[in-house]
Amino acid sequence: MAEPRNRYSLVSLTFHWGIALLVAVQVGLITVFERYDAAKDPLAGAYIGLHKSVGMTILALTLGRIVWRLMNPAHPLPVAAPRWQNLLARTTHILFYVLLIALPLGGWAASSAAGRAVEWFGLFSLPGLPVPLDRALARTFLDMHEAGVKVLYVLLALHVVGALKHHFIDRDNVLYRMLPILRRRP
Ligand code: HEM
Ligand code: HEM
């Protein structure tokens, strides 16, 4: 098996870094939202509205990304890496996809159970998910949403440590092929 020198395609790179950026925006929006008094301040509503719109965008992009990924398999990991590391990397990637779908669905379900609209950047309203109108259920969906976010942070930490280990310790091209502004190693 060849060592992984080739960068990912522009489409794969755009999906990866676009979604990563939007996830950072999501966390930023919620951090700002939490500074406001949601009951009194209209700005809080604007931030949560943006959070929902960006979240639904992540859902759509992730579905598109999965279709793309099924048509374009990932590059193999370096043969030198132990099997457990490759398995951990692949498991992390799969769980990322699961969460990038489950988080928006959980948020959407919470809004639907609370009887709140989910608009997409004020352009159109998305239909509610078929869940009962029930405040306690909405709270449960939000608790799941928050728990999912914590798992996402753990995955991200593992993912970044793995990427940095490849780059600085193994000194291979795994990070380069996802971040081709770096210098390619011979
Ligand atoms: C990948 C996409 C998403 C990410 C990464 C994300 C992330 C987060 C984070 C970090 C929080 C704060 C959790 C906490 O306080 O511990 C949160 C809360 C929330 N999210 Fe999301 N979210 C996403 C998608 C969505 C979507 C699509 C919706 C709705 C359609 C949504 C609705 C909410 C709501 C209502 C809250 C609770 C705000 C409050 O404290 O009242 N989220 N989300
Ligand atoms: C929220 C942020 C991020 C998410 C959701 C995410 C998600 C993913 C996913 C799902 C894959 C697998 C692609 C596939 O084969 O289908 C991947 C690959 C990769 N990511 Fe991330 N990523 C994020 C941030 C980062 C960051 C900050 C770095 C660098 C420090 C990074 C470096 C990489 C590398 C190097 C690969 C390629 C691994 C390989 O070639 O097998 N990612 N990422």
Which helices and strands occur, and which strands form pairs?
Layout (H helix, E strand, L loop, with lengths): L9 H24 L8 H30 L11 H31 L4 E3 L3 E3 L8 H36 L3 H5 L8
Antiparallel strand pairs: 1-2
Helix pairs in contact: 1-2, 2-3, 3-4
This protein binds protoporphyrin IX containing FE (2 copies).
Textual characterization of the structure:
The protein has one domain: Fumarate Reductase Cytochrome B subunit. Helix 1 packs antiparallel against helix 2 (42-71), helix 2 (42-71) crosses helix 3 (83-113) and helix 3 packs antiparallel against helix 4. The chain contains five helices and two strands. It has 186 residues and is mostly helical. The radius of gyration is 19 Å and the shape is elongated. The model has no long low-confidence stretch (mean pLDDT 93). Bound molecules: protoporphyrin IX containing FE (HEM) (2 copies). One protoporphyrin IX containing FE (HEM) binds at residues 16, 19-20, 23, 69, 74-75, 77, 89, 93, 96-97, 156, 159-160, 163, 174-175, 177-178. One protoporphyrin IX containing FE binds at residues 16, 19-20, 23, 69, 74-75, 77, 89, 93, 96-97, 156, 159-160, 163, 174-175, 177-178.
Keywords:
Fumarate Reductase Cytochrome B subunit, binds protoporphyrin IX containing FE, 68% helix, 3% strand, 186 residues
What's this, in brief?
With 186 residues, this protein is mostly helical. It has 5 helices and 2 strands. The protein has a two-stranded antiparallel sheet.
Q: Could you say which structural class the secondary elements and strand pairing correspond to?
A: mainly alpha
The radius of gyration over CA amounts to: 19 Å
Q: Just give the CATH class.
A: Mainly Alpha
Bound molecules: protoporphyrin IX containing FE
Find the count of extended strands (DSSP E, 2+ residues): 2
What's the total helix number? 5
Q: Main sheet?
A: 2 strands, antiparallel
CATH architecture: Up-down Bundle
Distance between the termini: 17 Å
Low-confidence residue ranges: none
Physical arrangement of strands within the biggest beta sheet = 1-2
Helical content band: 55-70%
* Binned strand content: under 5%
Arithmetic mean of pLDDT: 93
Shape: elongated
Query: What fold name stands as the CATH topology?
Result: Fumarate Reductase Cytochrome B subunit
